[in-house]
Design goal:
The protein is α+β, with helices and mostly antiparallel strands and about 90 residues long. The chain is about 25% helix and about 25% strand.
């Protein structure tokens, strides 16, 4: 399990995991507060986050009901999600 809460910088932290993802097939769940509107201030966008995570087999789910997928393009800032790898 990986927990990330970095007030809008989660995409950069997740990008920092690329070496880990490349070195192993293990895909632990990732709990992450997500603040999509902050991304434009650092030159990123939520669509890029979704594409990046999908490239490693992850999808975003509701942290309170992990069977429900979340559309992060419509999510409010500060939403807590769990990224789970497709099984």
């Amino acid at each position: 399990l990986i927990k990330i809460d970095v007030e809008g910088y989660e995409f950069r932290v997740l990008k920092g995991l690329s070496g880990y993802f490349a070195s192993t097939s293990k895909r632990p769940p990732i709990i992450c507060e997500t603040s999509p509107t902050a991304y434009s201030f650092i030159g990123l966008n939520v669509e890029g986050l979704i594409d990046y995570m999908r490239s490693f087999g992850y999808e975003a789910y509701d942290i309170y009901n992990p069977k429900i997928k979340i559309d992060l393009t419509k999510a409010e800032d500060g939403i807590n999600v769990v990224w789970k790898a497709k099984t």
